[in-house]
Amino acid sequence: MGEDTDLKPMEISEKSKIPFVLIIMLFFFPFSFSAQEQDFSFPLSTHELKNGLTVILSEDHSLPLVSVVVAYNVGSVHDSPGKTGLAYLLENMMFQGSRNVGQMQHISYLDRIGGEFNAETRAGMTLFYQTIPSNQLALVLWLESDRMNSLSITETNVQEVKDSLIEEIQLLHEEDPYRESSLYFDQLLYANSAYSHPAVGASISDIRNITVRDVMQFYSAYYTPDNAVISIAGNIDINKTVQLIRRYFDSIPAGKDRPSLNLETPPRTEISEEIQKDTLASYPGFYLGYRLESPFTDDFYSLSLIEYALFRGKSSRLYNRLLNERERIAFQLQGGIEKKKDFAVLKIFVLANEEVMQERCRRAVFSEINRLRSNPISEKELNRVKNLFKADYLRRFETVLGKAIFLAENYLERNSVNEIFDRLNKYLQIPSARITGIMNRYFSEGSILLNINLK
Amino acid sequence: MKKLLLLFLTVPLILVADSSLAQERFRREAPPPDPLPQLNLPQVLRNTLVNGLELMAVRIENAPIMELRMIIGDGESSSPEDLPGLATFTANMLDKGAGTFTSSQIEEQIESIGGSFSAEVFADYSLFSFSFLEEHLDEALDLMSKMILQPIISKLEIDSVKRSMYYDHIQRYSFPEALGKKLLYQILFQNHPFQKITFNEEVIKNFNREALLDFFDTFYRPNNARILLFGNVNLDTASRKISHYFKDWQNKDIEKTFIPPPVPNDKLKICFIDLPQAKNATLFLGNTIPFDDQNDLFSFLVFNQVLGGTTNSRLLMNLRESNKRNVFWAFSEVEFFRNFGVLFVRSMIQPDAIYQSVSDILEEIRKAKQAPLPISDIEQAKSYLINHFPLTIRSVDKIASKVSEKEVYNRGDEFWNEYYESVSLVNAADVFKSLANTSILQPIVIIVGNEETLIDQLSEFDEVEFYDKNGIFQFSLIERRE
């Protein structure tokens, strides 16, 4: 054991070895520089009912568990102006009971059988998921089909849910002194209220504006089998499962009169900067954002790796620059790519200890972005980023729930589950030059900066 | 003819109506479950190296992420009396320099293999968790061995870790739940070595290199350690590789003293911590529980499930009934150590319902001690524990946690392999008998909240002890009145 004295940085000793290693590798492994394609697949099959319901099944017999995800192709972008929060309200309503299931009984049933469940409303989809012992699959299909078919929507339960959402909004404002500034920044960045408002609702008055009729219409339009996908992963028999699904879902009629959604995606922007004085904030800080492309273009493979290079792990560029324990200049750093249906942005949020450091943090962030634009990312760093990405990606498949959610998401985003297993290889094959190119394409033009100063 | 036509038209209508009724009929009730499927648990295979290092391999097929756990058989209870928290400090320093790597280089190495590394210290052991992409097993073992065999303890890193620990500690214990649990354990473990896990941030300033090296040299020995590998690996490969990287780890005799269980609290005690920013009151209520053998352990698991394991359990259902919307949530938990456990209730309540809620919780426990619980409650709890068990091991990481805990406390392979049977065998009489040996009706009660809003409710109790956030006794409410 000893103290650090003349430690040599890894890079110097590594560089001297590289030519020798290169020769050996070229001799024995002439094709070793391109990432070998690996097989990340797991079994799956797709089925479709007459009423348009898509079913994706994946067998996994490692544990006697099954996860059932019912995902509807509707989210917060479908909220009407002045009545934002409607999609989230419906998510909560789905636990209020249906023709054959009492209020909150869905939760009680799952609790009693040792299951776990959750739900989430995103911009473009709403997911309901549960993991249960595999011998209880029929129970969950019964519960899900009942609420898809015959949700109880009454004045009383709508009002109860509205009251709890209002409490939730109040609590969010009380607990987060930066909530106002965060919502304002989203308005600047997305420039389209369909994208910018939070799922829980933009305001309490919006929640109050929602009527029982709104809820009924929303439910009838979007909570239909042809607007949904069921994905099931776990200890299942494919044929038996298909039979069960037909039993419970076949007779549910397809939807009609679904309003079409035309969302304008905001164009790239000039550089814009605003200052906001915040009475609630204890620390000064800033938000920085960039508008990106649709998350379904090939550019997104590189953008995801850029996100990891900037934010993921203590060796990431921004963490290292701002939160390094030896010379910490920021108090808090959050950031990453945010995807909302067909639009994506990159957001950075930094809090500094004081206003002098706020300026230093800003310069540090822009400096790192510019560095990534002008200097190719090293193979070593790119390798680190890819391995972190690969580990996070594969961790999703460790559980049956992770698999089921992955399948449902991919289906709703791309209308297909073909090629999903090839996608990880596409990320892993991105070369350094492409990262530089993508950085210049998306991070050279405008950015949106909102400074939070203390009052 | 007309009658025939009518019949011809009517019969299909009846059949259609009847088939739709048949559909409705099957929807009216929850379908019954299929038979409980078999649970095949991966086997824990063992080996011991020449230097005394125990290793275990748990093969999990098709696992692209591997989990490594290193257990050092000493935790905070072995920290010096004047330096509680030293074990945590030592563990936190492990990845701050090793071999020729600086702290940042170690971080980079870990991330380069798609990995993450963390340290956690408990009362009686220290645990290091390392996950990584399976194709990088050798690099992970190499790095881990350097941390153990060639640690670098620099002043710069010591200062940095102390600073982080200090501010993290303050942040963690600014939340009422963490604060409440800390005081509960501090009082339950009074005059017991385990009390050191409730150390305060002020002691962090006194951590120093010499004390750390002494702790490391004494306890970080292969004959006091285990390495567990989970993933696509067999015992032979694990033994060969671990032996290669850890063969130079020198063993040393370690004096181990038997730590008896703490003496249970024997009189109801109400304690309060003022947290002005708390809008509601957070409540902890608990006591230590002895157990003689693993049968007791399973009885307590079942009782805990009946009392407050889920939202359907007695606590929340009955508290909500008598307190309307004043109870936000209420659960019970049981934490097992080597030869005792702690059973406690935690709850968040509106300020004006504190007194009633404490009374109601005690009443629930009193009922369980006065007569055996209803068989239906016991069977429901057992069913939940059996059905829920696979969810507790749904990923490699969760299997690693479960097996590590089992190994630390030498629970034996039957605890893992025969979990279903052990739970199934518990009956109401067992639970009643196990509870009879406890002092759970003489618990410590910790209330965390805003004194201004709670003072009326606190006055309802015969006596309330006031503590500051560091767990230092301030005064007793009776004294104030006097």
Describe the overall structure.
The complex is a heterodimer of chains A (455) and B (482). By secondary structure, chain A is an alpha+beta fold. Chain A is 45% helix and 18% strand. Chain A is built from 17 helices and eleven strands. In chain A, the strands form two sheets. A six-stranded mixed β-sheet of chain A has the order 1-2-6-3-5-4, with helices on both faces. A five-stranded mixed β-sheet of chain A has the order 7-11-8-10-9, sandwiched between helices. In chain A, a hairpin with a 5-residue loop joins strand 1 (45-48) and strand 2 (54-59). Chain A is globular, with a radius of gyration of 25 Å. Residues 1-35 of chain A have low confidence and may be disordered. Helices cover 44% and strands 19% of the residues of chain B. Chain B has helices at 2-27, 86-93, 103-112, 137-149, 155-172, 176-188, 209-219, 235-246, 294-308, 314-323, 354-370, 375-388, 396-408, 413-417, 419-424, 428-436, 451-458, 477-481; strands at 44-48, 54-59, 65-72, 97-98, 101-102, 116-121, 126-133, 225-231, 269-274, 281-290, 327-336, 340-349, 444-449, 465-467, 473-476. In chain B, the strands form three sheets. In chain B, strands 11-12-10-13-9-14-15 form a seven-stranded mixed β-sheet, sandwiched between helices. A six-stranded mixed β-sheet of chain B has the order 1-2-8-3-7-6, sandwiched between helices. The termini of chain B are far apart. In chain B, 44% of the residues are buried. At the A-B interface, helix 3, strand 5, helix 4 and helix 14 of A face helix 1, strand 5, helix 3, strand 7 and helix 5 of B.
Using the alpha-carbon principal axes, give the shape of chain B.
globular
Instruction: Please give the largest β-sheet of chain B.
Output: 7 strands, mixed
Round the Cα radius of gyration of chain B to an integer and report it: 27 Å
Helix percent band of chain A: 40-55%
Strand content of chain A: 15-25%
Please tell me the overall pLDDT of chain B: 92
What's the SSE pattern of chain A? HEEEHHEEHHHHHHEHEEHHEEHHHHHE
- CA-CA gap between termini of chain B: 102 Å
Uncertain residue ranges of chain B:
10-19
**DSSP summary, beta strand count of chain A:** 11
Query: Strand sequence of the main sheet of chain B, in spatial order?
Result: 11-12-10-13-9-14-15
Distance between the termini of chain A: 51 Å
Beta percentage of chain B is: 15-25%
The main β sheet of chain A shows up as: 6 strands, mixed
Mean pLDDT of chain A: 88
Main β-sheet, spatial strand arrangement of chain A: 1-2-6-3-5-4
